[in-house]
Amino acid sequence: MFGNRQKKEKIELSKDAYSKARRFFGFIKPYRWIYFIGWLFLVLSSVTAMLFPALMGQLLGANSTDKPVVDMGAIDLTDINTLLIVMLVVFGAQALFSFFRILIFSNVTERALRDLKAKSFNKLVNFPLDFFNRNKVGELTSRIATDINLLQETLNTTIAEFFRQFITIAIALTYILYTSWELALWMLAVVPVLAIVAILFGRYIRNLSKSAQTESAQSNSILEEVLTGIVNVKAFTNEGYESNRYTTKVNRIMGVNIKSGLMRGAFVSFIIFGMFGGVAFVIWKAKGMETDGFITNSEFISFIIYTIFLGTSFGSIPDLYAKIQKSIGATEHLMDILEEQVEPEQGITLTDFKGKVSFDQVSFSYPQRHEIQVLDQISFTCLPGQTTALVGSSGAGKSTISSLLLRFYNVDQGTIYFDDHAINDLNLESMRKHIAIVPQEVILFGGTIRENIAYGDINASEEELIEAAKKANAYDFIMSFPEKFETLVGDRGIQLSGGQKQRVAIARAVLKNPKILILDEATSALDSESERLVQDALDKLMVGRTSFVIAHRLTTIQNADTILVLEHGKIVEQGTHHDLIENTNGAYYKLNNLQGKSLT
Questions:
Q1: What is the pLDDT of residue 175?
Q2: Which range has the worst mean pLDDT, 172-176, 198-202, 345-349?
Q3: Rounded to the nearest 10 degrees, how much is the dihedral formed by the CA atoms of 170, 171, 176, 178?
Q4: Is 434 helix (H, G, I), strand (E, B) or coil?
Q5: What would be the CATH architecture of the domain defined by 15-339?
Q6: What global pTM score does this model have?
Q7: Which CATH superfamily includes the segment(s) 435-513?
C-alpha cells in the first residue's frame, strides 16, 4: 500500500485523503477547548481589524458634516480626538487578541505534532520487518520530518489566515452592500470568473507540489543510502555514478518546482490584474456616485479601503487553499503510515521457558516473493542447551530460519514450537526477550560502548555490564581506550574494528542472558586473532543455552549436537559432524572436502 506509492502517485486527492486529513484532527482533540479559545481570539482579532477601514474613513472625512460611518452610541466619532482614542483602543485590542491567538495556536500545534511524532515513531518501530522491506528508510524519515514540518506551518498560520480572509470578505461585503448595493454588484461581477480560474490553477499547482514532495523524498532516500554505504561507493569507484543519480533526481525536483513557480506566478499575475483591475473600476464607479451625492465622503473612503481589503482577501485565498491541499496530501502519507498494521501485541506470555525449539513441517516464502519457496516442510527439534548448526550454500534458507525464530515473519504452513507453545500463540515481546542474536555484520548505535552493551538490558547494573564485557573478551580493549566505556563508537560502529564490534555485540547478548542464542556467521569476516577471541567468547556464551549456529566454515561447528544440511529449502542431511562425515556420498562430506581443498 504505502510502498507502492512512489511508482504511481494519484493525480487528485480522493475522498479518502480528506477522510485521513480529518482523522489527523484527532491529535488536536485532547486540546480542543484551548484550541476553541484560540479560534475565538482569531474571530475577535479579525473583527477588530475590520473596524480599521470604517474608522479610517471617518478620520479622513472628519471635516465633513456627514454622520459617522460607525455608530457607537454616546461616543462622538465626529470629534477627531475622540476618534483617535477609539482607534488606539481598537488597535490595542486587536494586538492583544492576535497575541493570544498566535500563542494558543502555537501551543496546540506543537503539542499535537509532538503526539503525532511520538505515535509515528512508536508505529514505525513496531511494524513487522516486511514493512521495511517494502519501504526505503530514507523515504520514511523524509515523510516524518518533511510532512510534519509542513503541517506545523499549516496549523500555525495557514488555516488561521485562510479563515481570516473569509471573515474579512464577509464583513467587507456586508459593509459594501449596506453602503451601495449597486457598487456591490459591480464588485461581485469579477468574483465568479476568478473563482473558476482559482480552482483550476489551484488543482494543477497542488498536483505539482505533491510530485515535488514525492521526488524530494526519493532524493533524500538516495542521499541516505549513499552516505550509509559510502565505503562501497568508494571501493567500487562509483562516486560519479551516484552523483549523476542524485543530480538527475534533484534536476527533476528543480524542473517540477520551476514549473510550479511558473504556474503560481501566472496565477498571481492573473489575480493581481483581474482583481485590482476590477477594484480600480469599482472605485471609479464609486467616485462618480460620490460626486452625484449617492454616498458621503466618509463612506467613499471606507468603501475604497474595504474594497482593497476584499480584493486582497480574494487574491490570497487560492494560494492559502493550495497550501492546505498540500498539507492534506502530506497528512495522507502520514495517515498511511499510522494505518499500517503493527506486530501483534496479544498472546501468551512465555514464562519458565526451558529452551526447547521445534519446527514442524514449516514452509515459507517471503511476502514480496511468494513464487520462491525458501523453506519446504522443514522439521527438526533442538532440545534445551543443545547446539544446532545450519549449513548449506547461499540461499538454502539458513538465515531465514533465524528470522522465523524471531518471528520477523509468519510461516506459510506448519508450526514452530517454543517448548509446547505454538509461536503464533505467544506474546512477541515476551518471546523475543528469550532470544539474542549475534549477526555477521554488527551494526552498533552511534553512542558510547556502554550504551551499546547496555542495549541488551537497559536496567543492568555497572557490575553486570563489566562482567558481560569480560565474558565477551571485550573488557581489555575497552579499557585500553582513553574514554574506556564512554568511548564513542561512531556511526554504525565505524570507529571500532570488526572483531571489536563483534565482541561488543556478544557482550550485549551476554547481558541479555537469553535462553536461545542465534549466531549468524559471526566469525566469517574476521582475521585469525579476532576470530580466536570472538570464538572463545561465543563458546562461553553458548554454555547452557539453546544455540543456532549459521556457518560457512565447517571447522566452527564440529562440536555441534546436531548439524542440519540445507539445500533449496529442504533438510537433506541431519546428524553430528562425525555421523555426517562418514557418508562419503552426502552433501556435508562434499562441503567438507570442498573447504578442505580451499584451505590447503
A1: 80
A2: 198-202
A3: 110
A4: coil
A5: Up-down Bundle (1.20)
A6: 0.66
A7: P-loop containing nucleotide triphosphate hydrolases (3.40.50.300)
